[in-house]
Description:
Blueprint: H1 3-47, H2 55-90, H3 96-124, H4 130-135, H5 138-147, H6 152-160, H7 163-173, H8 177-180, H9 186-210, H10 217-221, H11 225-238, H12 242-247, H13 252-255, E1 275-281, H14 300-309, E2 310-317, H15 323-332, H16 343-346, H17 355-360, E3 365-370, H18 379-385, E4 390-392, E5 401-403, E6 406-407, H19 409-421, E7 427-432, H20 454-479, E8 486-492, E9 497-498, E10 504-505, H21 512-515, E11 516-517, E12 519-522, E13 532-538, H22 541-549, E14 571-575, E15 581-586, E16 589-594, E17 600-604, H23 620-643
Parallel strand pairs: 1-7, 1-8, 2-13, 3-4, 3-7
Antiparallel strand pairs: 2-11, 2-12, 5-6, 8-12, 9-10, 14-15, 15-16, 16-17
Amino acid sequence: MTTADCASAARPHAIVASSRSVAAARAEVQQLGLALVLLLVATKIVLLPFPVSTIGEFVRYLLRLAIVAAPDVCFAVALTTAAWASCPLWSRGRLRRPARTAWFFLFYVAGLYGAMSVPIFQWTKVPLTLPVFLFVGGTTSMASSIESCVSLGTLAAVVIAPLALLVAPWLLRRLPERAAGRVFSWRIVAIGLVLTAAYEIVCRQYVHARWTDPNRWERRIAQNPHAVFLESCLKELWSPGVSAAFAEADESDFRRQRPSEPQLQEGPPLPRPQNVVVIVLESTAAEYLNLYGSRFDTMPNLARMAADRGVVFDNFYVQTPSSCNSLVSITHGVIPRLDWTLIVRDSDEFSVPSLPRILGERGYRSCFAHAGYWKWKERDEFLRRAGVDRLIDADTVQAAAVNSWGIADRDMFQATLDWVDEDRRPFFLLTYTIETHHPYVARPPLKDFGVDDRDMNRYLNSLRATDETIAWFLEELSRRGLLDSTLVVLTADHGESFGQHNQRVHSFSVYESAVHVPLVLIHPALADRARHVAAVRPQIDLPWTLLSMLGVEPPGEWQGDHLFRQAEDRAYFFAVGNQAILGLRDGPWKYHFYVDGGDEELFNLAADPGEMANLASREADRCAGYKRRLAGLVTYQREFLARHGSK
């Protein structure tokens, strides 16, 4: 037989061998793809709540699961199709082994990132994007923050689950051929792609048409984390968003030299009280108080006391609509971390001097009382480290719970009166209500405030009841002869939303209903001062002012200033409930920057108090300047907190 005859005879065998190698590679890819689909669907099962008690609820749960998992199925099918189609290029010859290893590695990384997305999502409440990644400080910050939120079991699942992808082909090869499945043809693959695309389109349309609330959990997890992150990287590469926004950082507001003696507003001398009582109202926005021009007569007693001997700060802003973070600003006079990490829980070595410890060193006794539970998010340990002498909360007071959040505010206030009676030394007392927290404690008969929202009507009734409780508490201080020698401060930890800008409750935005809160100072010596201060003031000014009024020099680490200063300054705030949003108030202007997408909002509150007309496109230069200042906040605060034990 000639050489040509041998080659001719061997050619069919080579073709057959080549065909078999392609079929084997495609079988492996199909098995990897199936395993990836199952893993990604499993992540959505972990994230999707399972409140099922009937067959009907179970069916609805399966439908919701199918909707939120659609982007993940689509991603897995697209990756599998790409690998399947490329098999003829690498399934034989020298490329076979490195290409096969590369595809196995790619599928493993996809599975690993899918598993990692669960704790990331539980921490950030949104899929990770490059802007969010850069905003929180990169891998170091992300690793330490996520570590504080995951258990050993979660970590094991994240590591082990993707390994199932690698062993799936090995396991399936040991099944009968029919069970393992045959290699799909191009026609079947094309039909599968069309069906998958249709499935994704239908589910996407449903999400946008029916799940319109951007804060809805199902809407937020109905995204594929891989696609979201890759898309954000491409957007950043094509048109740098957050990188450009934070490239030019204006830190002048944070590095300015504070005058040793601030120039105060004109008026009688400020009081030098013997005691201080700070009343923190849970979830109370300024817009719901008649003291701030609301049509709702929610706090008549507070309005009367403020008119008699109080000063009202018209434009007082929390740093963030979060209870835990507000506690940091009130006790330590600094802006909290600008990410999802909580100083109260995650920063045992936080070294900024605290208000209770400073006063304790000067002979004051301190008590922090809460109608809720200080142990939530480990705030109790944070306050003990801050030097608080006595903690009172729903765990320490023998009283019936009003709901799962805590006990009646009046029972908490009574416990503080008992503490006051124990000793006649000067005291610093912080009281923290709970009845205005959702679901709002409203005792019958309920007043009709003329609103269609049932929750809001309950909320307004709870504000009215809280006003009566505070009036009783202050009367008890007066009966003890302590009211005239005590500076009473009334403020809130954050606001509350009832549909404004499609927002509910708190933590999710920096609109006025979330960050603009009341601040009222009450003392006999304030009777002759102006009733209202219109200047913009941030929450970090409060502890600074309290120390100053008590004759104590505030520490240099604190970032606030005197509430009664003449200067008109900016207030900075942020929210990370669902997404990272930065904002500032500058005179009548209020600016919001959405870190993830780079969107901007600019409002002139003097003409538009409801924040309805976004002027960002008309005021590009102003927005650019504000964006640089927010970049300065991010860069400066990250370095400042790292220097003080919160890395």
